[in-house]
Amino acid sequence: MLEPAVRIPPHDDTVIAFDRVSVIRSGNFLVRGLSWQVELDERWVILGPNGAGKTTLLNLASGRLHPSRGAAYVLGERLGRTDVNELRTRIGLSTGQFGERIPPAERVIDVVVTAAWSVVGRWRETYDPMDTARARQLLEQLGMGALLECLDDARVSSVLVVGRRSVGIHHPKLDEIIHQDFFHYDAIQSRNYPIVRGGVLVVAILFVLANLLADLSYRVLDPRIRDEAAR
């Protein structure tokens, strides 16, 4: 149990401040008497066995759970006395179960758009064009920008994407090969040639990138090559 000194109410730059927080369900303590403070410039890793309360602690810290006892402040707001729907839009959260909550037909850009509002699934909701533009900018930072540029370029007639799941973009130029596990050889045995070609293409690209990275590393690690380049 973490019990550092906690200032209540916390300073403006305090991210999390829990003062003797407990979470009780059916008479059992999921978290008991926890005091915890996280400052703006700190990074924490929570370790513990199954059932230790890590998920409960994460749900408290992300504003998705209220304490049964004690005072919990997140980003300066006290849980129970603030609009958590507004608070959650300021918090980024990713878990192993998050992917299971996304609708199967959801487009990637819609996942990003709705995430800004702490919502999973766009359904029939409409969003402002600025939300869509911001989502595109974020996707560009993750490498999706190159794909969008290729699809918009008149000189590109077709684009083939090989991956474990769809990129979520519908475009007449775009062809996709979806394969859940590239280490299974069922496609070869069943003569599913599109998947075989896609797997070979992925391996070839990885091989080329590995060799390129090795060549670039030589210049940094080998002083002889570095000196020749300087001349």
Would you give an account of this structure?
The chain is α+β, with helices and mostly antiparallel strands and 231 residues long. The protein has three domains: 14-88, P-loop containing nucleotide triphosphate hydrolases (Rossmann fold, 3-Layer(aba) Sandwich), CATH 3.40.50.300; 98-156, no CATH class; 186-230. 38% of the residues lie in helices and 18% in strands. It has nine helices and six strands. It has helices at 54-61, 84-88, 98-101, 108-115, 129-141, 144-152, 186-189, 193-221, 223-230; strands at 14-25, 28-39, 69-74, 77-78, 159-163, 174-178. A four-stranded antiparallel sheet has the order 2-1-3-4, covered by helices on one side. Strand 1 (14-25) and strand 2 (28-39) form a beta hairpin. Helix 4 packs across helix 5 and helix 8 (193-221) crosses helix 9 (223-230). The termini are far apart. The relative contact order is 0.07. The model has no long low-confidence stretch (mean pLDDT 80).
